[in-house]
Amino acid sequence: MDQLYSSPKFQSYFENSPQSLILKADPPYFTILAVSNQFLAISGTVREEILHKPLFEVFPDNEHDPSGRQRAMDTWMEVIQTKKRVDIPVYQYEIRDPQTGELETFYWSNANEPVLDEDGNVAYIINTTKNVTEEVRLRQLAEKANMSLEEHQQRINSLLMKAPVGMAFLSRNNYVIQYANEAACAIWNKGRPEQVIGISIFDLLPELRQSDMQDMYDRVMETCQSFTLTEYPVDLERDGTLQTSYFDLYYSPLTDLKNEVTGIMVMANDVSHTLEARKTLRDAEQRLRLAVEAANQGIFDLNLITGELVHNERLNRLLGYPDGLTLVHTDVRKNMHDEDRVKVERAFDDALKTGRFNYEARVNWTDGEQHWIKTLGKVFFDAQGQPVRMLGSTMDITEQVEYECRLDEINSALQQEISKFEIITEFIPQIIWSANTNGSIDYVNKGWAYYTGLPMEAAYASTWQEVVHPDDFDRVQQAWKNSMLSGESYQIEYRLRKHDSEYNWHLERGKPLLDEDGKPVKWFGATMNINDHVELQKQKDNFLAIASHELKTPVTSIKAYAQVLEMMLRNAGDEQKASMVTKMGIQVNRLTTLIADLLDVTKIHTGKMQFNDAFFDFNEMLDEVIDDLQRTTLKHQLVKEYRFNGQIYGDRDRISQVVINLLTNAIKYSPDADRIIVATHTNDNDLELSVQDFGIGISADKKDHVFEQFYRVSGSKQHTFPGLGLGLYISSEIIRREGGRIWVNSEEGEGSVFYFSLPLNKPVA
Ligand code: ADP
């Protein structure tokens, strides 16, 4: 057979064969025995170069990917084994370009038919190869195109679905929703796209039936024309109420291939927010304009490159020009005060560097007056840092400047006053101070340093407290606290340490400064050295104690002698002399009372007043006192109004001393009255006694002082009554010591009511 295939006759026959190769079944060579012109053409080879050569030597495929070669080998081996025709529809095989020598990828299809020898074994393979590269490429392209078309479709779909604009397709009949994207569903607020598709838009949103929506849809259907509406109000139900939203709407007919209208496409963009924002912006603009107008401000916008100036009308007047004139940049400084013009130029140059424009200057206005103006501006720079624009405003600050001038004048006057005050306070012997609400001193005069010998700074620190005598400290603190709570002024005597470490008595008066709510915001006070006074007081007390003590014995003797003398004269029938001695006795009694009072005062001062408390019948004591005193006055009727009956625990003599004092005062200070009422009653846990007279009374501003020692109300009426001003002081001390309270209600010219109370359940000592 080899000879047959090799014969020139067969060779020339095969040249024109539609088949491609005759291969010898001699694996692994598959020697080429014959080749057709068709194959030479598609493989780009020359007969002489390939004939009688092993196929894989001539067509080695790509050495890096010899899959085509393997495929061919496998196929032919299959043909040899099965002795049947085996086809490969498409496979890839690389062959070298005869021109460039480069490997090129081709796609082939081939059929392989066995030719058997006499023994029935495969001896040859007739191969028919077709170059299908073109078809494969086309098919690949088509597949690719198909794929990207699908992708494209999908992308468009999701784009539409996620588009920020609501989009829906409505059918021709009944406007049933056929497609809706998410934005459309968000506007409708009735569920997701798959939930609303298939429902008529008017069933989904019944509120639309009242609108002109249907007319619009109908119009699109009839005219087959699309149309647009902007910022169109649509009422939609939201949370049970109809609410108006604004939409940009676009309606367009949907047509089929025959150009017949099948439905309508609706696009809706909710512009409510934009409208609102625009409205807010408009409002803000308006407000700004109003504010600028109200503030009477001049506004300007200066182009720093062209020098062009845009400004409002108000700027004209501020810069000294008539209204209506358009100003250029060089006009701005023309009417300024010469001195200020230089300053403004400098401010302008600075602004071009710093970005901030700020000056105050005087301008001569058209009305002939000079006004102060203030300009504030901001400079804008381009990307290269060049100043390109300046925006700013100018206002009239004449009043403010004048006010500041006035304030300066007032301040300097005040400063002078303060200096004067400081000179005065420096020389006064008192310590003058002010303190804030937490008690720390914020001003003190030099008196403090002189007295304490400490540096001034120490007064501002807590050292102030250290110089208060430890025994007085709590009392001082308490006075402070009380005053702080009540907002009332206080007065206290305490000892302060001197520079020589001695303690001197001081009298301190503090007065709070109150705010509108009556709360103290600051304290002012003066602390005065009263040591000498206190010393004198002590000496006086000593003197009084000795003097009254020494007087007591002779006066008692005089009284005894007087009584004896009176008796003797009466017995001798000398009534005239006897009554003179009686009068002497009365004067001696007054003297005794005076001496007793003085002794009491010294006892109070030295803390030596003794109390012998015991139970006693209160009314019995009252009767005794009242009956006794009734005998001394013919004019006054002493009226008893007892509403208490019982025992009181206290010093009977001391308490009766108080009643006597109140009654004698009542008699003394009501010379024209004929009645004095002594009343008692109980009140909670107290017994209350009142002595009411209808005499001269006491004025409101003086009545609280009557319990002070040596205090006597001064006045034209009072000075006719004798007295030392000690009785009420002693009484108040007795009542205080007995655990009670003493006070007075009085009206000038009407009379007074003196009260005291005593505890009913006083603990028995
Ligand atoms: P005196 O010895 O001056 O009466 P008191 O201490 O008893 O001293 O009283 C003090 C002052 O109170 C008196 O000087 C008087 O001005 C006034 N006073 C006391 N009682 C009365 C009263 N019943 N009516 C008017 N003024 C009174």
Automatic annotation (TrEMBL):
Residue ranges of every copy of the PAS domain listed in the record: 284-355, 417-487
Protein name from the UniProt record: histidine kinase
Molecular functions per Gene Ontology: phosphorelay sensor kinase activity
Superkingdom, natural source: Bacteria
InterPro entries tied to this protein: HATPase_C_sf, HATPase_dom, His_kinase_dom, HisK_dim/P_dom, HisK_dim/P_sf, PAC, PAS, PAS-assoc_C
Catalytic reaction annotation: ATP + protein L-histidine = ADP + protein N-phospho-L-histidine
Enzyme Commission designation: 2.7.13.3
Catalytic EC class: transferase
Ranges in a coiled coil: 135-162
Record keyword Transferase present: yes
Organism name: Mucilaginibacter straminoryzae
UniProt domain Histidine kinase: residue ranges: 546-762
Residue span, PAC domain: 228-283, 357-409, 490-542
Classification via PROSITE patterns: HIS_KIN (PS50109), PAC (PS50113), PAS (PS50112)
Keywords per UniProt: Coiled coil, Kinase, Phosphoprotein, Transferase
Record-linked SMART domains: HATPase_c (SM00387), HisKA (SM00388), PAC (SM00086), PAS (SM00091)
